[in-house]
Amino acid sequence: MKKKIPPKPWFFPRPVLLLSTRDGAGRDNIITVSWAGVACTKPPMVTVSLRKSRHSHACIHATMEFVANVPTSSQMDEAELCGTRSGRDTDKFVAAGFTKQNATIVAVPMIEECPINLECKVRQVFPLGSHDMFVAEVVKTHVQSSLLGQDGELSGSQLDCLGWGDGDFLRVVKGRPPRRGLQVL
User: Fold this and answer.
1) pLDDT tens across 39-93, in order?
2) What is the spatial distance between Cα 71 and Cα 115, in angstroms, rounded to a whole number?
């Protein structure tokens, strides 16, 4: 039996991303987000939603750019730090021990230690209530070579990233659960 409860945006797991941002004065910041998703293939676009009160919200509005960095499960502590401290009074690159790496198109640094970095330019902002949704075009992608197959596509066999759900981090690894009576046609 299912119980009816108030509406909730429950998707599990949600991706964990470390967004690197830069404010109008040139100060860099990182925020951990899980309200994110793929929006379009051509052109490649992603969405991220941030509360208006967040420091990174103002940073993204100032530059209309960010880098979506995909952390590994071994970077859980750093992701937690970047999601629980404010960039208004903490240099999260220093606090997390991350190395800034120059992006090639946007004027926001990438996190060198993350295996995937998506340079993004915001194309639209939608006020939604508690959050604004930033729709951004991925203008350049950087991927650790060990994650690419011979065809140049993400193989994912070595990918070990983070998800978020039920108030905690989840480890997301490639795999297939056992089939229960399903036939492949």
Assistant:
1) 999 999 999 999 999 999 999 999 999 999 999 989 999 999 999 999 999 999 9
2) 7
d(CA 2, CA 53): 36
Q: Does residue 19 form part of some domain?
A: yes
Among 92, 91, 125, 121, which Cα is nearest to 104's?
A: 121
120: CATH: 2.30.110.10
Residue type, 178: P
Distance of alpha carbon 49 from alpha carbon 30, whole angstroms: 14
In a domain, 57, yes or no: yes
User: Is the full-model pTM beyond 0.85?
Assistant: yes
Distance CA 145, CA 137 (A): 23
3-state SS of the chain is: CCCCCCCCCCCCCEECEEEEEECCCCCEEEEEECCEEEEECCCCEEEEEEECCCHHHHHHHHHCEEEEEECEHHHHHHHHHHHHCCCCCCCHHHHHCCCEECCCCCCCCEECCCCEEEEEEEEEEEECCCEEEEEEEEEEEEECHHHECCCCCECCCCCEEEEEECCEEEEEECCCCCCCCCCCC
